[in-house]
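Collaborator request, handled under Task 6.
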Amino acid sequence: MKPYRIGHISKSKVSPEFDKAESSYLNIEYAFGAETNIRKLLAGRLDLVVEKKQRIVQLVNTVLALEAYRLELLSPSLFINHFHNCVSKRNPKHQEIIDDFNLGLELIRQDGTEVRILTEHSEDKSDL
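Structure tokens returned to the collaborator:
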């Protein structure tokens, strides 16, 4: 991977393995935003860009729509980050909030709403 110019967001973390490689042998070029890195990639100034799939899809669906055909998402992902919701235990209704959220999530999974939302936003459920 040393010969490749890899675009990455300044001070951003990917995974412990990537972060270790970043500090020891990867050829990283930093920017302050994903759009800048993707524009550098399209201009031939970078070989790869490390970025969240959701952010790339959002940019491709908006400001980079005319250039979408020139980009390819690579598989497998470098890292899949699972997000969690937090509720303060100081909130007297914290358990009710958690239970309501979990019930609502289960309902939208059962009735197909989750897949429709992900499809509408060009997301692959297998990556989430």
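The cover message to the collaborator said: "The chain has five helices and three strands. The chain has a mean pLDDT of 88. Please let us know whether this matches your experimental observations."
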